Amino acid sequence: MNGVHDLGGMHGMGPIAPERDEPVFHTAWEGRAFGLTRAMGGLGLWSLDASRFQRERIAPADYFRLNYYERWIAALEALMLEHGLVTRAEIDHGRADPGATLRRPALTADQVPALIARGVPTRRDVAATARFGVGQRVHARNINPVAHTRLPRYVRGKTGTVDRDHGVFVFPDTNAMRQGEKPQHLYSVRFAARELWGDEAGRRDFVFLDLWDDYLGPA
Amino acid sequence: MTAHDPSSPGHTPDHPAVPSDPALRVKALESLLVAKGLVDPAAVDALVDTYEHKVGPRNGARVVARAWSDPAYKRRLLTDADAALAELGYGGLQGEHMVVVENTPAVHNLVVCTLCSCYPWPVLGLPPVWYKSSAYRSRVVMEPRGVLVEFGLTIAEDVEVRVWDSTAEVRYLVLPERPRGSETWNEVALAALVTRNAMIGVGTVVLPEAGGPA
């Protein structure tokens, strides 16, 4: 979707403000928000792509107003509602509805190290035709789906060169929408900054994006 | 405005609802999920503890120091990062598929995620706030040299700048240039020099003023 999360090339966002000696979590609730999101994600009921899509759907004004982990919590609540794990009333009151039953075993502390060590690999060992080869000029398609995509607006319609083929990966556009993994080749594509931003961009500046087969056409 | 006010911003059928007071909201949410048997608070503790105390940029610094000290390891790291990182015990969540890019006198690499906050957790831990900020995400793909100046880094005109926008599930780590004058330093001393920012590509590794390991 053409949301405000797709920030590449926007103006007016101000200076970058690094903090000195920044803590991992600024408040205790940020840590809990992180842990709750990962613990619920660890149940395997939804993909990271689906989580990202929920974060992208936060209304634009809220997206900029909210702290990073507030966005996570908003998206987690939306996912749990979508999957029928909780009701709106339960979230609003912080209490389980009378008669609400246990749904499934929760992730336990002793499962956490294995969950982290294993991660959630998205490379797939399946045959898929690579439509493009390293060194080939390719064109990023001009698509504007209202659903999830990982093709940023700033490269749509631009021409670049395939720099490497990462192999076959789950396609987020369908996976986020629970329409299947549609595994396909993922390429690192190199774009000249001048192709993206015009003649005032640096002659020796390049931007590399990881783009799926379906995002590309021959140049 | 209360948390359940249906007129609150964002609470429409099309958008996730937005918490009012985050501390209270998260506490209430955790209580609810524990009561429903969906969350074990000890698992949340373990997740928080892992990323607060166990996984962070010291992991990446160890990788960089090894690559500087062992040319064969460096070759493996640059050609098959997943296997090379696994040799040191790193991999897994948000680092399942890794690529390491090398800074040289001719090329400067830096990493961003313009769409969210993708970052190589096993080697750098969780990202700092500035990395997730609208300012960094919007600007660095368009004016990387200007952004680097804000970090105190001026890149010579004849040096190529490569910005890696991690739009997929591949995560990038920058192998910084080894500082001149560190030839006699051992791996442990080298690792202590390597900063998180250098491994994102918004910093370089420098020797302390006095020079030489203690």
Secondary-structure blueprint of this entry?
The complex is a heterodimer of chains A (219) and B (214).
Chain A: H1 28-41, H2 48-56, H3 60-65, H4 68-82, H5 88-93, H6 112-118, E1 137-140, E2 159-169, H7 172-175, E3 184-192, H8 193-197, E4 205-212, E5 216-218
Helix pairs in contact in A: 1-4, 2-4
Chain B: H1 22-35, H2 41-54, H3 57-69, H4 71-79, H5 81-87, E1 97-102, E2 107-112, H6 121-124, H7 129-132, H8 134-139, H9 144-150, E3 160-165, E4 170-175, H10 187-193, H11 196-200
Parallel strand pairs in B: 1-4, 2-3
Structural account:
The complex is a heterodimer of chains A (219) and B (214). Chain A starts with 27 loop residues before the first helix and ends with a strand. With 219 residues, chain A is α+β, with helices and mostly antiparallel strands. Helices cover 30% and strands 16% of the residues of chain A. Chain A is globular and about 60 Å long. Chain B has 2 domains: 22-52, no CATH class; 56-200, Nitrile Hydratase, Chain A (Alpha-Beta Complex). Chain B is 42% helix and 11% strand. Chain B has helices spanning 22-35, 41-54, 57-69, 71-79, 81-87, 121-124, 129-132, 134-139, 144-150, 187-193, 196-200, and strands at residues 97-102, 107-112, 160-165, 170-175. Chain B has a two-stranded parallel ribbon. The radius of gyration of chain B is 21 Å and the shape is globular. Chains A and B meet through helix 1, helix 2, helix 3, helix 4 and helix 5 of A and helix 1, helix 2, helix 7, helix 8 and helix 9 of B.
